[in-house]
């Protein structure tokens, strides 16, 4: 979805964040855009294959002075998200028991 052509049309100040699915962003194109200044920043919480293979380009790029953040697929872990999970689970159990 986010490929080289779309990145070429982006404003250089764009901060691109992916916490959806690993294949949504062409990571190589995004990394090239980041290095060239066409992309203002990149945050990635998901990768196409997890765990990533040794030498993954985004992980290797973490040692460069780039506006890059890579997290281990844990963007959902917030106090609010945990509370929502607990509440939804309790609701589902109550509804199941009353059916």
Automatic annotation (TrEMBL):
<keyword id="KW-0520">NAD</keyword>
<dbReference type="InterPro" id="IPR050418">
    <property type="entry name" value="D-iso_2-hydroxyacid_DH_PdxB"/>
</dbReference>
<keyword id="KW-0560">Oxidoreductase</keyword>
<feature type="domain" description="D-isomer specific 2-hydroxyacid dehydrogenase NAD-binding">
    <location>
        <begin position="1"/>
        <end position="75"/>
    </location>
</feature>
<dbReference type="Pfam" id="PF02826">
    <property type="entry name" value="2-Hacid_dh_C"/>
</dbReference>
<comment type="similarity">
    <text>Belongs to the D-isomer specific 2-hydroxyacid dehydrogenase family.</text>
</comment>
<protein>
    <recommendedName>
        <fullName>D-isomer specific 2-hydroxyacid dehydrogenase NAD-binding domain-containing protein</fullName>
    </recommendedName>
</protein>
<dbReference type="InterPro" id="IPR006140">
    <property type="entry name" value="D-isomer_DH_NAD-bd"/>
</dbReference>
<dbReference type="GO" id="GO:0016616">
    <property type="term" value="F:oxidoreductase activity, acting on the CH-OH group of donors, NAD or NADP as acceptor"/>
</dbReference>
<dbReference type="InterPro" id="IPR029753">
    <property type="entry name" value="D-isomer_DH_CS"/>
</dbReference>
<dbReference type="InterPro" id="IPR036291">
    <property type="entry name" value="NAD(P)-bd_dom_sf"/>
</dbReference>
<dbReference type="GO" id="GO:0051287">
    <property type="term" value="F:NAD binding"/>
</dbReference>
